[in-house]
């Protein structure tokens, strides 16, 4: 990024105090602001050459990957990943979300031992900075909880600082039935301490102990961590499980006003110290709750579009696009600078909470049954009714859309094309890029359902597959082509106008128009295993139409276009 002679922005202290004071009072707010100022100076922020960063336009697409998803003998995995990206996708995935690369004790990185270190099995900070020099990086900020193996937790046990008051002690007799749970594990973890047995809040597992953000010192710690990440090259920050951040007994302890206020503070803080950095909220919850982090316009810059993966799966398994079409047509216009993060798969499974009010019970049950038939698993959560409900479908997206009808690769690519056509910023999981099927051996080795979609590849073995003629190679070539084609279309700008067109339940059709009005694009997706014919009367007015995916033009005199099973056609004027 070229240096700039402009002065860096000055933090708006009054705005920051407006967000903090109702949470912490004057003294707590002052502590955080003082610590923030010292942290900024330590990490060299605001940086005069930071600038606004890469523009958020149609060229921005994010690869989601673990740091060791591809490995080679004698090379640290972060270096292997950088080499793989340079060789295989030099241009089409300019941003990379490297899942937690810190030392951890469980949950494949999400029980962080030390936020300020790099797992030595992956590399070191120089490897992170080398990758950041070539790609825009998304860092994970695992701020809801920390590992039992952390120094903070050790200090808590020893009644020492920092850490003695970083956790949430709860009397086990307390009525916690109102708390919304994402897991079926106990909410409180029993912990022997120097002061006797204590019971600590642990939303996700007994190894992941929740942090007490009602303590201003905890937020101050994370401000310093954030500034360290920015100095190391972070362009996006993913706020992991942020919906559960604040706890107040007697409430559901999810999406509390205090949680929203903390995120708004972080956005205002970054606007002053690191305006090039974007906040991404990860909230696997019902759709309307999920987008609440975007709609005010002063909170998240991006939010994961959690309804899309299960909706797309339902659509392509049934060949019926009604639910997807109605949902997409209902999406609200977002404030400037706020975007949906559209993805179909990630390191986690396919969450079904987001479609609780979109798909009916029978449709969700059918998804569960199909996933089990195709070698996947189903994770549950404990409901307030005492019943365990499906929470997550654990299966590789490729395997979920597999079949013996000869259309598996086309069906999968159709699912990815739909996600790429929608307004927002696309996120592509590594195993979706390279067509990895279920990793049942990984589940057997780890004992965790989520391992089914977290295979680690040997670089040479993966290279041979991608250079071959099998399904992974066809998917990889198709994904590169779709990403490359999308990046060149102004109509796919994240802010470009979007209109969902109803041409029947067998097609998903979205019209996009560039910000300057010069390009109109009709993205048409055949959702079925049968040929579907499309009248050209619905195409943008033009002398000739370009099918961007097929790379060919058609005269306007053609009356009808035949779409093969699961064919994708992006028609541009």
From TrEMBL:
<dbReference type="InterPro" id="IPR045857">
    <property type="entry name" value="O16G_dom_2"/>
</dbReference>
<dbReference type="Pfam" id="PF00128">
    <property type="entry name" value="Alpha-amylase"/>
</dbReference>
<protein>
    <submittedName>
        <fullName>Sugar phosphorylase</fullName>
    </submittedName>
</protein>
<dbReference type="InterPro" id="IPR017853">
    <property type="entry name" value="GH"/>
</dbReference>
<feature type="domain" description="Glycosyl hydrolase family 13 catalytic">
    <location>
        <begin position="78"/>
        <end position="411"/>
    </location>
</feature>
<dbReference type="InterPro" id="IPR016377">
    <property type="entry name" value="Sucrose_GGa_phosphorylase-rel"/>
</dbReference>
<keyword id="KW-0328">Glycosyltransferase</keyword>
<dbReference type="InterPro" id="IPR006047">
    <property type="entry name" value="GH13_cat_dom"/>
</dbReference>
<dbReference type="InterPro" id="IPR033746">
    <property type="entry name" value="GGa_phosphorylase"/>
</dbReference>
<dbReference type="InterPro" id="IPR013780">
    <property type="entry name" value="Glyco_hydro_b"/>
</dbReference>
<keyword id="KW-0808">Transferase</keyword>
